[in-house]
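Researcher: I'd like a structural prediction for the single chain below. Treat it as a standalone chain; there are no partners to consider.
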Amino acid sequence: MNLYRQLDDAYRRLRHRPRPDWLAQVFAGDLDDAVTTIRRDQPDSTASDHLLSALIQVGREEPDAWTVALYALAPRLRTRLARTVTDAYRSDVLTDLAFVLLDGPLDGSRLAARVVNRAHNRTHKAVQQIYTRGTVNVTTVVPRDPEHFSRARAHDEDIAAGVALRVDLARFHAAVRRAIDRGDLSALAWAAYCDHRLRRVLDPDARVCSGHERIIASRTARKLTPLIGTYPHAA
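Model: Treating it as a single chain, here is the predicted structure.
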């Protein structure tokens, strides 16, 4: 879908219609005169600023006025974009230009250049946020046979291994409590680790942790790595 081509077609259909009444409100002779005046903003942008501002205000009741404004600004927008950008990026910039006309300020000089630059910056920042913020961790959930845990519990447990497990768990818990008392680990982080990493293993029906709690649990796991290495049965 090429939004620029659709915009050209919409403007061409407007030209073949009778002269709209709202043109008198913006003091323009016809549609082509309005487009030419908006594009001719150098060296003096006064006429372009007044006409573009009037079109935007009239466009809140007459959408065709906005079509004329967007058509007049489209060539400048194409020039502002690099040749390497994708068609999707060009469409996003044109969409952001419509939003800028809707909620942007209309005062000041060189209005046409300012709204085009604002739309381009808005799209550019949105793209940068997508590519630079955060990381994506792909997780795969492997279904288990419901009887798997029953079969695992059916095996006789070695007494020595069971004792070592309980002793390591007790020492591990005591080490965690000492870390909390020293301030090396916060009680909130330990609680988030228990809810996200430990409880979901024992209770599949437990409440779903929030994204913030999962982040805290992940950071806490890195802090607990030395303790788990000291008490291997606790892992």
